[in-house]
Amino acid sequence: MSDSSVKVRRLSDLQTLVSLSKRRGFVFQSSEIYGGLNSCWDYGPLGSQMKLNVKLAWWKAMTRRPNMCGIDASILMHPMVWKASGHVDGFSDPLVDCKDCKTRFRSDNTDSYINEKKCPECGSKNLSEPRNFNLMFKTLMGPVDDAGSVIYLRPETAQGHFVNFLNCQTTTRYKVPFGIAAIGKSFRNEITPGNFVFRTREFEQMEMQYFVRPGEDEKAFEMWKEIRWSFYSKFGIRKENLRFHPHGPTELAHYAKAAFDVQYLFPMGWSELEGIHNRSNFDLTQHTKFSGKSLEYFDEAAKEKFIPYVIETAVGCDRLFLAFLCDAYREEVTVDEKGQEDVRVVLGLHPEISPVKIAVMPLSKKEELMNIANKVYSQLSEDFAAQYDESGSIGKRYRRQDEVGTPYCATVDFDTINDQCVTVRHRDTMKQDRVKISELNDYVRKGMKEF
Ligand code: ATP
């Protein structure tokens, strides 16, 4: 990209990504052959690998620190959990029904309703009163279909951390402050899902709860803000697309003492990517009250008991996946003498996030070259997600890999037979290096580290 005649176009609409995702196997509409299921998406061959990389990057960043551990709690929890957390009574949006056109809409964010008490679809004023609609999905546990078997799909992973607070503390023997991290599915019956995988009804969350002595919560809150910011920098999210948004008093959740959103500039505008909350001792106090089991922590050094405060960081895996794609997408445009545009589509993903790290390509379909290329592919596959590609011109094959964010391509050519080297071509600079096959894995490993 050193060539100044190359113009770079960034992503301007989500549809471009939706198309690329379908065409290249990142994300498909769920149940597509039946016409699809609204707001549900399936991660394809490349998407599932990339999503795993996103989770691994987060997991490593959160758990490979002193006094941090992980947990994998179940989606179905005792119904009392959601009473204690406030979700049964408070996790709702106000909804209005239009009695004429039957449209259902939120009364708190629909302009035509707020200003004129009119239906946003047909303009009718024949409307129901706002009614609270709980966002939790209900299901039945066991064979009996009665009110006693009602159970919820969790709307957040955090409650698994709270109810296991003492289990984790005693088994790890950590002293406060310590933290619990988890990755898992959550479900919310969102009224207005949309914007691809940005807001869906089934999604994955990556949440961390950090338990601290009361009075040390504000310092810990600042510490986690910095840690989370540096995560985004490390993985190359462009600074101009990221900002903190502090919650004003009217935005604060019922449990929160302070909260900041990390917002990303998505094509539809600045939107929440991650929430960083000071949840005070609300949750542990509530669970103590509702379960009758004390969740107090005993500080041996100070010989005193207290209920810890909690700093929470919560990011949606699917939303982060989308932010990575939006941020990485670029079109490099060159115009030739005849005014013809050539567009190179590149996903400039951080190599740890890229679904494929290296593609191996025999220059031609000569058996000798294909045999070597297959061996190189096997060697690389021991350490990395690699791909083997033998069809089409080399230029076309490079472009295919650029479009899915593969940082390296290794070409096996006729010289390889004699010198046992391959040509490694870099996605971003398009620079080429001749590398010994025996040193190729180390070369890629080093390149990924230094990216
Ligand atoms: P929003 O205001 O966007 O609905 P929220 O404030 O309700 O989000 P939290 O409860 O703080 O979200 O959840 C933490 C994170 O989980 C969010 O920052 C977001 O990344 C993710 N998340 C929440 N709801 C959804 C959803 N319906 N689809 C995808 N990700 C979600």
Map the helices and strands.
Layout: E1 7-10, H1 14-24, E2 27-29, E3 41-43, H2 45-63, E4 68-70, H3 79-85, H4 87-90, E5 92-97, E6 104-106, H5 111-116, E7 131-134, E8 138-140, E9 150-152, H6 158-163, H7 165-172, E10 178-187, E11 202-212, H8 217-234, E12 242-246, E13 258-266, E14 269-278, H9 282-291, E15 297-299, E16 304-306, E17 309-316, H10 317-328, E18 329-335, E19 341-347, E20 358-362, H11 367-381, E21 386-388, H12 394-403, E22 408-412, H13 414-419, E23 421-426, E24 432-436, H14 440-450
Parallel strand pairs: 4-10, 20-21, 20-22
Antiparallel strand pairs: 1-18, 2-3, 5-6, 5-7, 8-9, 10-11, 11-17, 12-13, 13-14, 14-17, 15-16, 18-19, 22-23, 23-24
Helix pairs in contact: 2-10, 3-9
Bound molecules: adenosine-5'-triphosphate (ATP).
What distinguishing features does this structure have?
451 residues, alpha+beta, Rubrerythrin, domain 2, Rossmann fold, 7-stranded mixed beta sheet, 5-stranded mixed beta sheet, 14 helices, 24 strands, 32% helix, binds adenosine-5'-triphosphate
